[in-house]
C-alpha cells in the first residue's frame, strides 16, 4: 500500500518546494541579529549585555552546525522530505517558545538554539534533495547548470533572511518584539503540514539505499582521503573557515553598527538590512552564472576580494545611499559563496548528504565564534567597531590568498566512481 503511494517527484517540483521550505526555515533565525539591542535592553543584562547577546548568537550557530554531520549521514540513507518537514517544525517551535516565554535569558538561548537546530537540519537533506534531482544516475553526471540551480535554491534562503528583518520594521512599533516570533511560528507550522501532505510523504529513499547497498558504488575511507587531497579540499575548507569567520563577525553587528555609529533607528536599521539583503539574493544567481561560465575558483576569488573592499567602505562612508549600496554588495558577496561551494562539494563526492553535513558543520561552527568575539570586543571597547571591521578585512584577504594555488578545473562525479 505504501509503495503504491510513491512516485517520482519531478526535479522542478523538488526545486520549487525546497525553495519555499528554505525561505521559511531561515526567516526566524535572522530576526535576532536586528533585534539584539532591543532584546539586550529588555533582558537588563547590565555591563555584560554584549557578552550575553554574543553567547545567544553563538548557541544558535552551534546548534545549526554541530549536528550537521549526523543530519548529512541520515539524509544519505533516509527520506529527506521528512527531515525537511521536521526542520520547519523545529524552527516554528523555537519561535513559539520565544514568543510565549521569552522573558528570560535562558529561554531565549534555548529558543534560538532550537531555531538554529531547525536551520541546521534543513541544509544537508535540502541540498542533497535538490542536487540529486538534477543528476543523471546512469551517466553519473550532474546538470551543466548545477551552480545556477543551487543558486535558485539559495535565493529562497536569502529571501527568508531578508523578510525576517523586514517584518521587524513593520511590526516592532506596534507590538512587543516577542510577538514577532510568535507570529512567525504560525506560517512555519502550516507550511510543514502542507509540504508533508503534497510532497514529502510521496518521496522514496530507494535510490539512496541502492547507492549504499551496491558493492560497486562503495567508497572506502582511504579513497575519500585521497580524493580530498587530490582536489585541494583542504584549501577549500580553509577558505570556507576564513569567509565564515568574517561573516559571523560582521553580520552580527551590522544592525547595532547602524544604530550606534550611523544614527539609524532600530526599526529602520532592520528595514535597511532586510531590503539590502533582499537585493543581495541576486548573488546566488550571479555566482552560479560566473561559476558555470568560468569556474568555481574565479567566482570565489571575486567574492573574497570584493568582500574586503566592501567591509572597509561600510566603516568609512556615512551617507545612507552609500551604505545601502555597500550593504547590498556585502549580501551579494555572501550569497555568491553558498551555491558555488555546494556545487563544488557535490561534484567531488558520492555521499553528498555527508559532504553537505561536513560543510555546514565547518561553516556554522566557525560562524559561531564571530558573535562571541564581537561580544568581548564591544564589552571591553564600548561602541568601538574598528577592530571587528579590521579583522573582517584580514580574514577576507587570507581567504583570497588561500584559493590562489587551487586548480580551476574540478573533477566530475563519474571520474570518482571509477577510483
Question: What does the model show?
Answer:
- The chain has 419 residues and is mainly α.
- It has a single domain (12-201, 220-417), classed as Growth Hormone, Chain: A (Up-down Bundle).
- Helices cover 78% and strands 1% of the residues.
- The protein is built from 18 helices and two strands.
- The protein has helices at residues 11-26, 32-43, 49-65, 68-75, 80-101, 105-133, 146-171, 177-198, 206-213, 221-230, 233-260, 266-280, 282-293, 296-316, 320-347, 352-380, 386-403, 413-417; strands at residues 135-136, 141-142.
- The protein has a two-stranded antiparallel ribbon.
- Helix 1 (11-26) runs parallel beside helix 5, helix 1 runs antiparallel to helix 8 and helix 6 runs antiparallel to helix 16 (352-380).
- The longest helix has 29 residues, at 105-133.
- It starts with 10 loop residues before the first helix and ends with a helix.
- Residues 1-6, 206-231 and 409-419 have low confidence and may be disordered.
Topology overview:
Layout: H1 11-26, H2 32-43, H3 49-65, H4 68-75, H5 80-101, H6 105-133, E1 135-136, E2 141-142, H7 146-171, H8 177-198, H9 206-213, H10 221-230, H11 233-260, H12 266-280, H13 282-293, H14 296-316, H15 320-347, H16 352-380, H17 386-403, H18 413-417
Antiparallel strand pairs: 1-2
Helix pairs in contact: 1-5, 1-6, 1-7, 1-8, 2-3, 2-11, 2-12, 3-6, 3-16, 4-6, 4-16, 5-6, 5-8, 6-16, 7-12, 7-13, 7-15, 11-12, 11-16, 11-17, 12-15, 13-14, 13-15, 14-15, 14-17
Summarize the structure.
The chain is mainly α. 78% of the residues lie in helices and 1% in strands.
